[in-house]
Amino acid sequence: MGLRKPSSGLTQILSENLRFLRNQRGLSQEELAEVCGIHRTYVGSIERGERNVTLSSLELFASALNVSVPRLLMKNLGNNDDDNQDAG
User: Fold this and answer.
1) Would you say the pTM of this structure is higher than 0.70?
2) 18-27 burial, b if ≥16 CB within 10 A, otherwise e?
């Protein structure tokens, strides 16, 4: 039995939310990666939906972006007025 991957829908939600929140806070991929202690290319590959993210990586991103892990996985995060006004 091979490794299981998350659904493409969940991967897409995470990639969109990560990009939205990073941009909202005025961070480049490199700056976010530095805050998280990970490589810049890893952030880019997640934003492109190319990587299967671990729970520990979700925790790093959530902490760096000052949101909860469930919020990173929330559908239509960028369409919520509260999120558009809260730049963290």
Assistant:
1) yes
2) bbbbbebbeb
